[in-house]
TrEMBL record:
It comes from Aurantimonas aggregata. A motif ('KMSKS' region) lies at residues 250-254. ATP binds at K253. The keyword Amino-acid biosynthesis does not apply. This is Glutamate--tRNA ligase. Residues 352-456 form the Aminoacyl-tRNA synthetase class I anticodon-binding domain. Monomer. One of its GO terms (biological process) is glutamyl-tRNA aminoacylation. It is an enzyme of class 6 (ligase).
Length: 457
């Protein structure tokens, strides 16, 4: 058996880091098992699905390093779902219901007032052909529900019917079908909700493992029953915990919160995003992994927390800085060139400034500091100005190299009696215009004698 998994986003917005968690759990599992990863666009929602969102989803996944083995679109497979729906109708397992949303809402409220669970009572099964014809004459169009196998001889008297499975992540799970309403599979306009197309595709594409968020645990019981009704093999299921924002609110594609597009545009490294998406809520330290293969080695389903995990942007910043500090020049050469770093000095420049960059784009703030003709004039006291003038006179002759800073400050210290911050800070301010930054021993050769003397007055 070839392991086959699927990631099935709806192209109704941008992927966020919570969606990426699901994609990576599937991708890493498939690669570890030598299996296939299917990207399936659940785009049967005609009003909200957009091709541009689907294209961006593929771009986002490619940025992370995920390349699907197969891409399918449900909008191109409608005939398969129609055929499955007809099979269920013919078997008496898909029945028409004529209640409006308002009528269903009132029923739920009446049940709640009686402290009863809001389970649909299958009233539509009691309708005669004449009553259905009368409702249709009123202009009502039916939605279609799947009749759950949770009863003996009489569908109006459900009995406890347990669906069991050994969840890849959560371990043994049980869902009682008697506690659930018959799910709507087809809307009034004939379009399909998520459930039936998903099951048909899983069967048709040979999906062996379904790994998804734990908000689908209850759905699994329903879907197992529909798999059986269609004569399809039930996949192995795994449900991981969800990510929330720090305030506890859920992430949403439509809100754009923590979207991969925005994180990419803000300059985060893909492995920082991937590492946090997988390792938050996972046993062990959250650390920046060098590549997806290493991340896959860390992933252990039995070490994933059962409760939701909060996404902390500060953790992402930490991981990103860790990755950036370890990047060699070839990995950033194109980005430095785009920022305007002189190519002949770019390798040395990157080695000097990367420790002060949380993102590669942060090098932009050091370009004028190093290569600019002028820097902001510091507000120095008269005593500090005098010390800087003395330092200018003591600048060693010859080429400025990695040893210049130490020899120079040693001479200034001897001449002025200054040391520590009183010595170094006025020089840093005069040379760079800022009170922090990379080691001046590394910056001085890049700044060069002419710019250095100009800045010292």
């Amino acid at each position: 058996m070839t392991v086959t998994v699927r990631f099935a986003p709806s192209p109704t917005g941008h992927l966020h880091i919570g969606n990426l968690r699901t994609a990576l759990f599937n991708w890493l599992f498939a690669r570890r098992e030598g299996g296939r990863f299917v990207l399936r666009f659940d785009d049967t929602d005609r009003e909200r699905s957009r091709r541009e969102y689907a294209d961006m989803i593929e771009t986002d996944l490619a940025w992370i390093g995920i390349s699907p083995d197969l891409v399918v679109r449900q909008s191109e497979r409608l005939a398969l779902y129609e055929a499955a729906a007809e099979r269920l109708r013919a078997a008496g397992l898909l029945y028409p219901c004529y209640e409006t949303p308002d009528e269903l809402d009132r029923k739920r409220k009446r049940l709640a007032a009686r402290n009863l669970p809001p389970v649909y009572g299958r009233e539509a099964l009691r309708l005669t052909e004449a009553e259905r014809a009368a409702l249709a004459a009123e202009g009502r169009r039916p939605h279609w529900r799947f009749l759950l196998p949770n009863f003996g001889d009489d569908p109006f008297f459900p009995t406890r019917t347990e669906i069991h499975w050994d969840d890849l992540i959560r371990g043994p799970q049980t869902v009682d079908l008697a506690s659930l309403s018959d799910p709507v599979l087809v809307r009034e306009d004939g379009s399909f909700l998520y459930t039936l197309p998903s099951i048909v595709d899983d069967g048709d594409l040979g999906v062996t493992h379904v790994i998804r968020g734990d908000d689908h645990v209850t759905n699994t019981g329903v879907q197992a029953a529909i798999f059986a009704a269609l004569g399809l093999t039930v996949p192995r299921f795994g449900h991981h915990n969800l990510l929330t924002a720090l305030g506890g609110e859920g992430l949403s594609k439509r809100s754009g919160a923590l979207s991969l597009k925005s994180l990419r545009e803000e300059g985060y490294e893909p492995m920082a995003v991937a590492s946090l998406a997988v390792l938050v809520g996972h046993a062990g330290a959250i650390e920046a992994m060098p590549d997806l293969a290493s991340l896959g080695e860390r992933l252990a389903f039995d070490e994933v927390s059962a409760s939701s995990s909060k996404f902390d942007p500060a953790e992402l910043d930490r991981l990103n800085a860790e990755i950036v500090h370890g990047l060699d020049y070839p990995a950033v050469a194109d980005r430095l060139a785009a920022i305007g770093v002189p190519p002949e000095q770019a390798p040395t420049f990157w080695d000097v400034v990367r420790g002060n960059c949380a993102k590669v784009g942060d090098v932009a703030q050091w370009v004028p500091v190093v290569f600019g003709d002028e820097v902001p004039t510091p507000d120095l006291s008269e005593e500090d100005q005098a010390m800087v003038r003395t330092a200018r006179d003591l600048l060693p002759a010859g080429e400025i190299d990695a040893g210049t800073w130490r020899a120079w400050t040693g001479a200034v210290k001897e001449a002025t009696g200054r040391k520590g911050k009183a010595l170094f800070m006025p020089l840093r301010l005069a040379i760079t215009g800022v009170d922090h930054g990379p080691e001046l021993a590394g910056l001085l050769p890049l700044i060069g004698r002419e710019r250095l003397l100009s800045r010292l007055g």
